[in-house]
Design brief:
Number of helices: 5
Number of strands: 18
Shape: elongated
Largest sheet: 9 strands, antiparallel
Length: about 290
């Protein structure tokens, strides 16, 4: 057996050592360049993701508190991505932007009952989510802005238009605005049995407003004159004879401004089985 193994080993051709580097083979005259073999590079093994294991099954005789804790752990293990996404959405709605539903007629004809408006909560201030703590001011409210108000005096959220800025002297005479001693110009657009639609030309922009055609107390149609305090605003609804605004709740502090709205995202007709209003889809507000 030893001789057979020796003969077999002598008969086999000599295989070059694969560990020889390229420089060693090129210096050897008996090895042609075409026979050079490149040393394969080592490819790192991909990292194996460790699967998340569910919590250890609870003991059959576990108490009520232990069962609740175990159920929460299982819910988190199976739905943690959903909970993280939900948390991000909640924080976004609280501090960045949100949709607000319009209920009522106080902003007609600009806004209709059933409109869903986009609210930019970063228009004026950056606040800590779920609080009124102001981190930074990024812009100042302007005359003509449509704002969402978290009114403490009203005990609810309002949506109105800013008419008076801090330091302005505001007065109303039979629904005609006078700002800093200058009367605002008006133009009648349409008229019917119940209302008159007008264009109100504020110093910065013009917008539509609605006045009632029937009898309305003149005391409600008149106001002031009054000076708007610092960091507060005088707001009105575009439906002047059907709006509870600064004439009822006085001036609005800046800290109560939730955000600014400049568009309707979509609208549902509350008078027609909440059908979709196609003509108000993604409509900009004046």
């Amino acid at each position: 057996m030893a001789n057979i193994d020796k003969q077999d080993s002598e008969a086999q051709p000599r295989v070059p050592d694969e560990s020889v580097s390229a420089s060693d083979t090129t210096d050897h005259p008996s090895v042609p360049k075409s026979a050079h073999t490149s040393v394969p590079k080592s490819v790192p093994k991909p990292l194996e993701e460790t699967p998340y294991t569910l919590p250890t099954p609870q003991h059959p005789n576990a108490g009520f508190g232990e069962r609740i804790t175990h159920a929460l752990k299982v819910a988190w293990a199976e739905n943690r991505q959903f909970f993280l996404l939900l948390t991000c959405i909640v924080f976004f709605k609280s501090a960045v932007a949100d949709l607000s539903s319009i209920s009522g007629a106080s902003m007609q004809p600009t806004l209709l009952d059933g409109d869903k408006v986009w609210v930019n909560k970063l228009a004026y201030d950056i606040k800590v989510p779920f609080t009124e703590i102001n981190l930074a001011e990024v812009g100042d409210p302007q005359r003509g802005d449509i704002v969402i108000i978290d009114s403490k005096r009203a005990g609810k959220r309002l949506i109105k238009r800013i008419v008076g800025l801090p330091g302005d002297t505001v007065a109303m005479q039979n629904n005609a605005l006078v700002i800093n001693g200058e009367p605002v110009n008006y133009e009648v657009v349409s008229r019917d049995e119940s209302s008159v639609i007008i264009i109100e030309a504020l110093p910065e922009l013009s917008h539509r407003a609605r006045l009632a055609s029937g009898y309305v107390s003149r005391s409600r149609r008149s106001y002031g004159p009054a000076v708007v305090p610092e960091d507060q605003y005088f707001v009105l609804g575009d439906n002047r004879d059907n709006s509870a605004d600064s004439r009822a709740y006085s001036f609005i502090p800046r800290m109560e401004l939730v955000g600014r709205s400049n568009s309707v995202v979509f609208s549902l007709d509350s008078d027609n089985k909440y059908l979709f209003r196609g003509d108000r889809f993604l409509t900009e507000l004046d």
